[in-house]
Design a protein that fits this description.
Elements: H1 2-9, H2 15-26, H3 50-62, E1 70-74, E2 82-87, H4 98-112, E3 119-124, E4 129-131, H5 136-139, H6 144-162, E5 168-172, E6 175-177, H7 179-186, E7 189-193, E8 198-199, H8 213-221, H9 223-232, H10 238-243, E9 249-251, H11 259-271, H12 276-289, H13 294-308, H14 312-323
Parallel strand pairs: 2-3, 3-5, 4-6, 5-7, 6-8, 7-9
Antiparallel strand pairs: 1-2
Helix pairs in contact: 2-13, 4-6, 6-7, 7-8, 8-9, 12-13
């Protein structure tokens, strides 16, 4: 343990890298997919995705002049530190097609390395829909190997979103079905309009959730309720989703159709003033700890706590308390 703590104290040892060292030394278990390596190989590592990419290269080239399907919007002023991921595939209701997923993976990868980002909100610019799930028209043109490769790519995207170091919020002002709900489940927090419809509907299409839904839904609402929702392909509205713990907040939809976004912004503004390193390490402790036994989880918490002790923000928090003033955190 002392050796590991000395490693945490080494210059240039980031919190996530050092915690990773601790986790590897504490117990051996399969590490999460590396978002950079994930799209290269299928589960089992036998079929490279490059073949699928080449198949789509000509199609992508013809679409090069099309507007982006996913964009970033960085808020300014008092909301500086909040970033919105804008889903804007209007023609297909934000369906998870190859271009959409590729662009989303690139943006999420960029966000993962940006220490200035405090909170990320995933939202839709398409009225009445968050994300309609898989692009079944595109999927119908794939053979089995291509379909397997793409689903693996989609699963890796959800792992990337879940692995973002800062808090993430899904703002669902419309339908979040299949892969759309899986994307929301990969986020830390969820807001929804009462009118939003949510469901893992894959069994109604002869499939099962393949991008983390069968694992993240039970961890969110409990096993028996998750089984009911997946077995039946049932859709639920925002109020019902709140009752079952699927979303954190649900609000009546407004005239502009962005009530869930406004609620997500309100939630983000509650997170924004808090010490960013402490928030990130708290997320790390919870996300890592929930996957292991309580004894190991307590060790993870201890390591995360040790990492926050030498920060300037921790000292600023103590000084602000003693001086009876609001803290001024800098993320250092």
């Amino acid at each position: 343990m002392a050796t590991i703590l000395r490693r945490f104290a080494m210059p240039g040892c980031s919190s996530r890298r050092c915690l990773g060292v601790f986790l590897r030394e504490m117990h051996s278990r399969t590490s999460p997919l590396n978002p950079r390596d994930g799209p290269r190989l299928l589960a089992g590592g036998s079929i490279p995705l490059t073949a699928y990419s080449r198949t789509h290269s000509r199609w992508q080239h013809t679409k090069a002049a099309d507007p982006p399907e996913v964009e970033l919007h960085r808020l300014v002023g008092e909301d500086n530190g909040i970033v919105e991921v804008l889903m804007c595939r209007h023609k297909a209701r934000n369906a998870l097609g190859y271009v959409f997923v590729s662009q989303m993976r690139g943006l999420v990868s960029t966000l993962s390395e940006d220490s200035a980002v405090r909170v990320v909100i995933f939202r839709s610019l398409v009225p009445g829909v968050f994300c309609a799930g898989a692009d079944l028209k595109e999927r119908a043109r794939m053979n089995d190997a291509m379909s397997d490769s793409f689903v693996h790519m989609l699963r890796t995207l959800m792992t990337q979103i879940a692995s973002l170091p800062m808090p993430t919020i899904a703002a669902m002002d419309g339908a979040a079905l299949g892969g759309g709900l899986e994307m929301a489940l990969a986020c830390d927090l969820r807001t929804a309009a009462h009118s939003a419809q949510m469901g893992l509907i894959e069994t109604t299409r002869g499939l099962l959730p393949g991008a983390g839904g069968s694992q993240r839904l039970p961890r969110t609402v409990g096993m028996t309720l998750a089984k009911e929702l997946i077995y039946t392909g049932k859709r639920v509205g925002g109020q019902k989703a709140l009752e079952m713990g699927l979303v954190n907040r649900s609000v009546e939809q407004n005239e502009t159709g962005d009530a869930a976004l406004r609620e997500a912004l309100s939630l983000a503004r509650e997170i924004l003033p808090q010490a960013p390193i402490a928030v990130r390490l708290a997320k790390e402790a919870m996300d890592r700890g929930i996957e292991v036994d309580i004894t190991s989880a307590m060790k993870i918490e201890k390591m995360c706590y040790a990492l926050v002790i030498p920060t300037k923000d921790r000292r600023e928090g103590m000084d602000a308390f003693i001086e009876k003033r609001p803290p001024r955190y800098t993320g250092q």
